[in-house]
Specification:
CATH superfamily of the largest domain: Histidine kinase-like ATPase, C-terminal domain
Oligomer: single chain
Number of domains: 2
Strand content: 5-15%
Structural class: alpha+beta
CATH architecture of the largest domain: 2-Layer Sandwich
Length: 335
């Protein structure tokens, strides 16, 4: 469809130009014949075929084979030589004006140069925009492929963690297994059907987080104390799926284990005037506070890549890491 539109546009430009050319070359120029001429008599049908042949020889052959292949010197030499030759041929052999070569050039050269220069510019501009469009499409495809790859790294990770959790609870004979399977089903539905979307509704993503945290609350009873604070002025926004859940998962995976007390996981999510602010803090063991594990670093780099691809110059992400707590901060402009 795009190629057809470009072809129609180019055809329209050419038709309008030749109408303009005929008016300027044959109707606006003074009549030197000495007698009144009809409209058809004013059109030089000896000149037009030569001009058209020269113009489209340049447009269809010289520009694609020489100019676009950056053989500028050869192209320039040939086009100048052909224009001068065509002008001399027209003056001395077609209309036989018996004028000097200098007089011929001053009177007739512009009639050959005008269409060659104008339509060459149109050809060059058209080729430039087509190349730009191809580059944009290539870049878009590259970004989409990279995003799919990054999300494919996330989805199995979330799925296997949840399945392992259900299995562990079933082995223990927990009464919560049925509820956990139902929650897992909802989580999987979101992961399978919504993660392929570029953007999903904020409400849907928050519901997924709520369901995930409820799942984790059942799984980590007696281990974690989970606090999830939400302050959202409007759900009328869209967000890339599975951005926040990676940070929440890491909080559970790397939270400290205390025999005599619960380990805190604090999550704050706010949206105000289209600006999302997210903070996820969990307690860590002193000896593992630096968290230099390869998997953890890959997860952070994965998230940063997705943010740079989806929200370039519209996000801020940083972490605070000390001996007792690890905190991830994320801010996204959803507007």
């Amino acid at each position: 469809m795009m190629m057809k539109n470009n072809s129609y546009l180019k055809l329209t430009i050419h038709i309008l130009f030749w109408l303009f050319y005929v008016v300027v070359a044959f109707f606006l120029m003074p009549n030197f014949s000495g007698h009144e001429m009809t409209l058809l008599e004013r059109i030089d049908f000896k000149l037009l075929p030569l001009v058209l042949t020269l113009t489209y020889f340049n447009d269809l052959y010289l520009l694609p084979t020489l100019f676009q292949k950056k053989q500028y010197a050869l192209y320039g030499f040939l086009i100048v030589a052909i224009v001068l030759l065509a002008t001399a041929l027209y003056c001395n052999h077609i209309i036989d004006c018996s004028c000097s070569f200098g007089m011929c050039l001053s009177q007739q050269l512009w009639k050959f140069l005008l269409p060659v220069i104008f339509l060459s510019l149109i050809h060059i501009l058209s080729s430039f925009f087509e190349k730009q469009k191809e580059l944009e499409n290539t870049q878009k495809e590259r970004v989409e492929m990279e995003l799919k790859f990054l999300k494919s790294q996330i989805n199995p990770h979330v799925l296997f963690n949840n399945l392992n959790t259900v299995y562990a609870q079933a082995v223990k004979g927990s009464d919560n297994v049925a509820d956990m399977i139902l929650m897992l089903s909802e989580n999987l539905k979101y992961i399978l059907y919504q993660s392929e979307e570029k953007l999903v509704s904020l409400q849907m993503d928050v519901d997924f987080i709520d369901n995930y945290l409820e799942f984790q609350t059942l799984r980590t009873q007696g281990i974690n104390r989970i606090v999830f604070n939400k302050t959202i002025d409007s759900y009328n926004h869209k967000i890339a799926p599975l951005l926040l859940i990676g940070l929440i998962e890491n909080a559970f995976k790397h939270s400290s284990f205390k025999e005599d007390a619960l380990s805190d996981i604090l999550i704050d999510l706010s949206v105000k005037n289209g600006i999302l602010k997210f903070k996820c803090m969990n307690e860590v063991d002193a000896e593992s506070g630096k968290r230099e594990t390869e998997g953890f670093q890959i997860g952070l780099k994965n998230l940063e890549k997705r943010l740079n691809l989806i929200y370039p110059k519209k996000h801020r992400f940083f972490v605070e890491n000390n001996e007792k707590t690890f905190t991830a901060h994320l801010e996204i402009d959803l507007k």
